Amino acid sequence: MRQNDYYGGSFYEFNWPKAMLALAGHPLVFLESDPTVNVEVVRVEPELLVEKSGAQVNIRYADPVSGEGVRAIRESPTRIKLIEVTTAHKKIADILGDKGLRVPVRAKEQVMQAMRAIAPLVTIHSGIGGGIADIEEVTADSQPHLHLLPHGDGLKVNLLVRPFSGEGPCFQPGRGGRTIIAEVRGRRVQTHRNLQEESNRAQEVLTACPTLVAQEGESEWLIEEPDACLEFLLEVQSMAERLVVAWPDGEKLRVGRPVAMDALRVQIQRNQDWFAMHGEVTLDDGLVLEMERLLELLRGREGRFVPLGDGRFLALTELFRKRLAELDAFSEKQSKGRRFHPLAGELFRDLLQEAGAVDADRHWKAHLKRIRQVQGLEPELPSTVQAELRDYQLTGFRWLARLAAWGVGGCLADDMGLGKTLQALALLLSCAKEGPSLVVAPTSVGLNWLAEIDRFTPTLKGIMFGGGQRQQTLEGLQPFDVVICSYGLLQQESELLAQVRWNVIVLDEAQAIKNRLTKRSQSAMALIGSFRLITTGTPVENHLGELWNLFQFINPGLLGSLESFNERFAVPIERYGDKSAQKRLKQLIQPFLLRRTKNQVLEELPSRTEIVLNVEMSPEELTLYETLRRKAIEEIASLQGPSEQKRFRILAEIMRLRRACCNSRLVLPESPIESSKLALFWEVVEELLANRHKVLVFSQFVDHLAILRALLDEKGVCYQYLDGSTPARERQERVAAFQAGVGELFLISLKAGGMGINLTAADYVIHMDPWWNPAVEDQASDRAHRIGQTRPVTIYRLITTQTIEEKIVALHRHKRDLADGLLEGGDLSGRLSVEDLMNMLRDRE
Asked: Can you give the three-state secondary structure of 364-432, one letter per residue?
């Protein structure tokens, strides 16, 4: 409507009632909240409800009629009804009143006669049955209608029925009047709804669409997650013939029938040292999608729906989605398609078993044949092994021998004390005729390797690498030779050791090369060998990058580049706790890693296992020790008096030297010298804690325990403690706390440990300063742990090499009757002469 303003201009005003009615049936009406969503606008009459309530019939308008005009009501997410209230409608409202008109049920016929009179004016919902004879009747349609409306990233869903076969008013299934009289396509018609059938068919929809059931609502739902919306659309597809789906124009999401693994065709062929892989997926409509493109679309998505563009999605079966994720994780992208490491061949063989077709070249087939042959090997334990291997140790040897036959590396990650050294020696012996081997180990266990070679595999020749003529030693190596080298010497003589082509290379306690940036790690990577073996109880101590570096040594390239490893595994696992990535990493490394814990092999273990850990003093510690030893000899030599007096002085000096072997601060409280024994103690404890073991720690010296306590406090380790000064009541409280799981270590003075306490929660024992007579230590261990009553125990004795500690142990081993004469507190049985004691002080060799 055009009007003139005060200044002679003109402006326009809408006649809103007429404008709204003009929208009815117009194809270009959109929601104000989302201008991209097209809605249907229909013009309808006011609705009159006739309902039975007890002994009365209530007649009222469905929507309040307060005056003439046009009202807009949203009937479904994409349908708006316009109700035009006329003077006639207002007169009816005046008769009915605000709360509606109530009449007795016995007046039902009169009510229906009155309805006939007003039927041309309103839509009637009758809940008392009946009909109007002169109005055309049509069969009611009970088919469910789903009205879908995009809402953010999700969908709004309404479940309705339209009794007039897709025309006229909408109702919730099974609710509302049974008889409906309305104007449909310009003519007055009536129908009689079957409310029970509507309810049954609506329930069928809910049964077929569990996604709806998972949401809150009865006939209207909001599905917010995009993948849940797509799952819902797949569910709807399963009953497409039994319902009607209504979308806004141009707003349909299209999801095809789920694609399974059999739609994938793969080609595999050798590509230098790798295998190249290409593939394609054929969809329902004949569209062919490259596998690499499919992996790109799927990457980073949690669900099984892949966006193809223009509102179209590809649905994958859960198995196919899982397999594609694994193919992506175990392979690398290249210029055309993907490639994977040959050592992942077994994985890809299994992954592609259900593919529609696998077209492979002869190299791939030969590779799989080789894997099957290796898996079928039953290696024989060499007859010259002087030990009875337990079942799990025999399994470990055979596993190692299969890997060696295959030509790939392995990681033996058994718990501490389960005999990793013995299993490795059996493997070294089985391969010995092929050439010399190299064992790189911490200094503390190097001598142990030599002792174990002499004891279990005497046909091997153990050679300690060091001293002079190192190059000549390496040039003269023969089959059956086993060179034992420390990590320090590996770093110093890297070029020399890298010139030898070793038969077997063993890195013991291989966590020593966990940091790829260190010279030690780089020296290890430069070694050349036919079979590479690492042993470690803790393949991962701080982060997964350490695992990557260990596998880079035994099987280079298996885990890909460090960058791709971080992207595929480390970041998802460590930052986001991705269980699926963790599972895939385990799948990839499992063929090359063997780990057994104590709990897994309890039945095969003896009640106790004893292990000596040799401690080599640092140059600073050795200098202090030598100074103390020489000074002691000089002072004793200058003593005048009876031999008994000299004997006590010798014992005092021996005790002083023993304390210096433990920690320089036990003889010089302000000493800045770092303790090698303390460092080894923490290495052992750190590995035991990483594998959730409980440990008893014994020392004869209370002030030594104090140093250990300070270290544990610094590291934040929870522990219990007692010595001879601990009151009996407090002692029992601490024992009970440890047994209940409070504390990972229990520090005990050797004397207090022999008081009959019961600490069966522990399965490892560490003796920090072995006593004159190991039987005294064993008595304390037995009483504290009650060995044999609960589970096997492993006892570690830390002995400083080329010192008084080592001599005492050797003396006890070879002269047990004499060594037993040295009792706690310095009492003497008289069986050791002054000369014997002085000889212990002389000559470090």
From this structure: HHHHHHHHHHHHCCCCCCCCCCCCCCCHHHHHHHHHHHHHHHHCCCEEECCCCCCCHHHHHHHHHHHCH
DSSP string, 133-188: TTSEE-PPP--EEEEEEEETTEEEEEEEE-TBTTBS--B-TT-S-SEEEEEETTEE
Distance between CA atoms of 734 and 750, rounded to whole angstroms? 16
Could you give the angle at the alpha carbon of 345 between the alpha carbons of 343 and 346, nearest 5°? 105
Q: How far lies 644's CA from each of 89, 637, 819, 832, in Å? A: 129, 14, 18, 11
Give 477's DSSP letter.
-
Which residues does 190 contact at the CB level (< 8 Å), separation at least 6? 131, 132, 135, 136, 137, 138, 179, 180, 181, 182
Backbone angles phi, psi at 381, to 5 degrees: -70, 130
With beta carbons less than 8 A apart as the criterion, state whether 60 and 101 touch. yes
Cα 821 versus chain centre, distance: 57
As a whole number of angstroms, the distance between CA 123 and CA 184 comes to 10
- What is the rounded distance in angstroms from the CA atom of residue 539 to the CA atom of residue 536? 6
Report the length, in residues, of the chain. Answer: 845
Q: Which residues lie across from 223 on neighbouring strands? A: 155
> 610 vs 71, 423, 449, 765, CA distance in Å?
92, 17, 15, 9
Residue 140 CB neighbour total at 10 angstroms: 21
Is the distance from CB of 821 to CB of 812 less than 8 angstroms? no
Residue 674 DSSP code: P
Helix (H, G, I), strand (E, B) or coil at 441: strand
Name the residue among 274, 322, 366, 374 with its Cα closest to residue 592: 374
Q: With contact defined as beta carbons under 8 Å apart, do 433 and 499 qualify?
A: no
Which pLDDT tens digit goes with each residue over 698-747? Answer: 998 999 999 999 999 999 999 999 988 888 888 888 988 998 899 999 99
Half-sphere exposure (Cβ direction) of 506: Cα atoms closer than 13 Å: 30
Distances (CA, A) of 623 to 234, 237, 609: 79, 84, 34
Residue 804's H or E segment, with its range, is helix 804-814
The dihedrals phi and psi of 606, each to the nearest 5 degrees, come to: -70, 170
Reported as a single tens digit per residue, the pLDDT across 96-149 is 777 777 888 777 777 777 776 776 777 777 777 666 666 788 888 888 888 887
Query: For residues 189 and 182, what is the distance between their CA atoms, to the nearest angstrom?
Result: 6
Residue 12's pLDDT is what?
63
Residue 80, SS3 per DSSP:
strand
Output the CA angle 406-550-451, nearest 5 degrees. 80
What is the Cα–Cα distance from 533 to 717, expressed in whole angstroms?
32
Enter the tokens of residue 455. 């004891």
Phi, psi dihedrals of residue 471, rounded to the nearest 5°? -65, -40
CB 456 within 8 A of CB 421: no
User: Does residue 377 come out as left (phi exceeding 0), alpha (psi in the -120 to 50 range) or beta?
Assistant: beta
Containing 735, the helix (H) or strand (E) segment is helix 728-739
With b for 16 or more beta-carbon neighbours within 10 A and e for fewer, the 778-813 pattern comes to bebbbbbbebeebbbbbbbbbbbbebbbbbbbebbe
Residue 502: both structure tokens together: 């070793």
